[in-house]
Amino acid sequence: MPDLFTVTTQLPGKHGRTGLLTTPHGEIRTPAFIPVGTKATVKAVLPEAVKDLGAQAVLSNAYHLYLQPGSDIIDEAGGLGAFMNWPGPTFTDSGGFQVMSLGVGFKKVLAMEAVGVQNDDVIASGKERLAKVDDDGVTFKSHLDGSAHRFTPEVSMQIQHQLGADIIFAFDELTTLLNTRGYQERSVARTQAWAIRCVAEHERLTAERSHKPYQALFGVVQGAQYEDLRREASRGLASITGETGRGFDGFGIGGALEKHNLGTIVGWCSDELPEHKPRHMLGISEPDDLFVAVENGADTFDCVNPSRVARNAAIYSPTGRFNINTSRFRRDFTPIDDECDCYTCANYTRAYLHHLFKAKEMLASTLCTIHNERFTIRLVDQIRESIDGGWFGDLKKQTLASFYGN
User: Fold this and answer.
1) pLDDT tens, residue order, the chain (406 aa)
2) What SS3 state is found at 44?
3) Measured between alpha carbons, how far is 218 from 250 in angstroms, rounded to an integer?
4) Angle at 402 (CA atoms; ends 401, 403), nearest 5 degrees
5) Is 75 tagged catalytic?
6) Buried b (16+ CB within 10 A) or exposed e, 341-359
7) CA nearest 101: which of 195, 194, 180, 172?
């Protein structure tokens, strides 16, 4: 079996690097942004268009695909890539984030600032708690129909093996920044115990399904905003070897993060994790976050944000984000961005996009998602080129001054 990951260029004095991630369905040049196709589709966009955007891989969600259409159906179809007509590499997350975030009523995101009273029974206002955690796993109600389900580390591995993605993630417990220090400590210990079980079940399923391509398993580092817990979690995951001695093939850095401490937290994890294994940052895509995460050692990223905000008329440009549905664009017959090479910018005007949103036409979501995904993918491609070319610092300074200066 070839090495999963090879480092090519190191950012001087930093954890950041470029590299090559090898999967059964192709190579990923890193750093790389991985668009999210939660339910086996990047919303509003054809898989062929996602490929044309320069996406090297897509990430789907184990929780959602387990509930609908069912991981057994995707297995029968030949795996996630075949099911959704995506020829390249695929990722699936473990379902842990959705079990927790939907389970406590947070439909989209958890708080990213440690403000408010610490409370281990955090729940969104007016919502019923749908998830109950114990040391063996999580019992939860489906957000679709209220039916009862249970995820354990073994169940998450079984689901993800059926989904057949090239890179899969260990089942972990997601906490919020509002959980108490004591709970965070217990959660890190629980996630470590679950990680050991994930590796064991992954090895069993890999042997049982030896006719299938090998799926790389990533452990997930938790620990919230605490340096000692992040370092402890990183070392703990790196120490797991399993029966085969292989252990984890890479690592995800997850959980709720304070935005202003993002780079510091990624740096703590990179200090402790093996340099020859890839690091995936779960759930970021804003330009400042991308630069600081790369600088501190993250190799790949996924985030729903570029497509989500596009469906609400929010557009990324080199000079910042703006809403295309405001009146100043009614008679603006220029592209979103003269320098952008996406299909939307080559063929459509701001005035037309403004019209589509006002008319509530579905094409609005398609065209704006194409642009936003291309903007993010292209930015990370430029970051990768700048590390190889030795001008990362200049790119960071110029890009962030332009994007946030206005």
Assistant:
1) 567 999 999 999 999 999 999 999 999 999 999 999 999 999 999 999 999 999 999 999 999 999 999 999 999 999 999 999 999 999 999 877 666 655 444 444 444 455 554 555 554 455 555 678 889 998 888 888 989 999 999 999 999 999 999 999 999 988 878 888 998 999 999 999 999 999 999 999 999 999 999 999 999 999 999 999 999 999 999 999 999 999 999 999 998 788 899 999 999 999 999 999 999 999 999 999 999 999 999 999 999 999 999 999 999 999 999 999 999 999 999 999 999 999 999 999 999 999 999 999 999 999 999 999 999 999 999 999 999 999 999 999 999 999 999 6
2) coil
3) 5
4) 95
5) no
6) ebbbbeebbbebbbbbbee
7) 172
Catalytic member of 249, 289, 302, 337: 302
For the chain, the straight-line distance linking the first and the last C-alpha, in angstroms and rounded, comes to 49
Residues sharing a CB contact under 8 Å with residue 63, sequence separation 6 or more, in sequence order: 95, 97, 98, 99, 102, 151
342 is in an annotated binding site: yes
* Residue for token pair 């955090």: 122
Segment holding 358, helix H or strand E: helix 350-358
| Strands annotated E in 143-245 | 148-151, 167-169, 216-221
97 marked ligand binding residue: yes
Which has the closest alpha carbon to 217: 97, 92, 70?
92
Q: Verify whether residue 341 is a known catalytic residue.
A: no
CB 244 within 8 A of CB 213: no
CB 91 within 8 A of CB 59: yes
Q: Is 340 annotated as a binding residue?
A: yes
- Residue 230 Cα distances to 86, 100, 112, 257, 353, angstroms: 35, 20, 16, 11, 44
Among residues 264, 254, 250, the alpha carbon closest in space to that of 14 is found at 264
Please tell me whether 255 is known to bind a ligand: yes
- Is residue 303 part of an annotated ligand binding site? no
Rounded CA separation 97/206 (Å)? 24
Active-site position among 75, 93, 249, 337: 93
Global pTM reads 0.93
